[in-house]
Amino acid sequence: MSVKHVLFILTNAAEIGPNKRATGYFFPEVAHPVEVFEHAGVAVEYASPLGGTPPHDGYDENDPAQRAFLGSPAMRRMAHSRKLSEVDVANYDAIFFPGGLGPMADIATDPDVKRAVARAWDAGKIVAAVCHGPAALLGVTLADGTPLLRGRQLTSFSNEEEAGYAEADVPFKLEDALREEGAAYSAAAVWQEKVVVDGRLLTGQNPASGAPLAQAIVAALNGAQQ
Question: Looking at the whole model, is its pTM more than 0.90?
């Protein structure tokens, strides 16, 4: 059985919005999936639009998974994330976009991100994202000229969640933007776990969905190798 590889694609944005709110990737949305992948024997590597150390937000020292990830070999590897334009995502079995507000500032519009998503999808790979991570899917056109999002079942951080969290900081509402590009969006109640699997597109709604989404990715990877 060959080892499966997941490429985390992370934000480089350390602040967002008119109030220059400090941000980055949301720490548990990396720590919890990494815990799941390591337990399942799935290898994790890291990239970001600019390379280097991605900023983070939302660390909770009371969470054992987050404490374990902080200072771990996996986090030390992430501090040297590869520049996305120098990575061929087709060499991985899946790509994964964690959330946090940072992706709304760079991942949402970065052309290398759009190329990476399209290449991964066209190469038959799994594409996954959680919370604000599905911003990566916006504006992606596939090799056959169709928008990736058209008719796709997915979820993300909801308008209702954003209203109580960062409405004044984000440049747009992610739920609205996904719907406008033709996605069949659905959401659970605020802050409740939700994962949507539509073929090779796997999405999670919010921080509570990070580990369950990673479990769904592992299941999809195992299915792909049978």
Answer: yes
